[in-house]
């Protein structure tokens, strides 16, 4: 199973990827998570990416394609993968196609997740993530209201730097300019499955499973 989760910031790609990881036993490849990890470790890529992430802009195609090349060739992707946040530009999509041809692999489905902008702003304003295991929470979740600890691993919860209102707006703008055209690329290849990503997390997950014929 090789899936791409596609959609604007805050649509729920990370949340759904984590459920699919457990269901299909394949890894989530989140380029956003990989970049945040590189920043926190202070690697060369991290040093170059830090300001770009904070500004809500896109890291260069060259860097992103190289990161994906290394990950997809690694052993952990041998039984499949869920791409979350890649590709985000048409050149990235074209480079991915080329890489997959070289690896004699193909994408099964591109899930295009859609919600309106008002809901995205609401969701991102409430989001917290676990520093240790990456679990994603909405902060109005009663369970986490005073104590910001992860209920899976007790890790500390934090708010992402790019979830400030002004950066959210920038990310949405970048999405519509640079990422939205990727939809046309995959619809041209007959791989695009569009779902409404509203309703509960479970409901959205069912919509994804139906779209990929697993329900
Ligand atoms: P990345 O980390 O990929 O951020 P993003 O695409 O902006 O997406 P998010 O992670 O913000 O949202 P999500 O769709 O994963 O939603 P989530 O599940 O968390 O990228 C960060 C940055 O890295 C980019 O801005 C860029 O700079 C760089 N980058 C990454 N990839 C790149 C690439 N390929 N090329 C260049 N640059 C790249 O959910 C959001 C919130 O909603 C959570 O609080 C969650 O609990 C809640 N929620 C989820 N589902 C529901 C639901 N059904 N109902 C109610 N609430 C829900
Ligand atoms: Mg995410």
List keywords for this structure.
Rossmann fold, 3-stranded antiparallel beta sheet, alpha/beta, 215 residues, binds BIS(adenosine)-5'-pentaphosphate, 5-stranded parallel beta sheet, binds magnesium ion, globular, 49% helix
Task: Write a structural description.
The protein is α/β, with parallel strands linked by helices and 215 residues long. The chain has a single domain, classed as Rossmann fold. It is 49% helix and 15% strand. The protein is built from 9 helices and 8 strands. The protein has a 5-stranded parallel sheet with strand order 2-3-1-4-8. A 3-stranded antiparallel sheet has the order 6-5-7. Strand 5 and strand 6 (136-138) form a beta hairpin. The protein is globular and about 45 Å long. The mean pLDDT is 94. BIS(adenosine)-5'-pentaphosphate binds at residues 9-15, 31-32, 35, 52-53, 56-59, 64, 85-86, 88, 92, 123-124, 126-127, 136-138, 162, 171, 200-201, 204.
Tell how many strands the DSSP assignment holds: 8
Q: How far is the first residue's CA from the last residue's CA?
A: 15 Å
- The overall pLDDT average reads 94
Unreliable sequence segments: none
Radius of gyration using CA atoms only: 17 Å
CATH architecture: 3-Layer(aba) Sandwich
Ligand inventory: BIS(adenosine)-5'-pentaphosphate, magnesium ion
CATH topology: Rossmann fold
Overall form: globular
What pattern of helices and strands is seen along the backbone?
EHEHHHEHEHEEEHHEH
What proportion strand?
A: 5-15%
The tally of helices reads 9
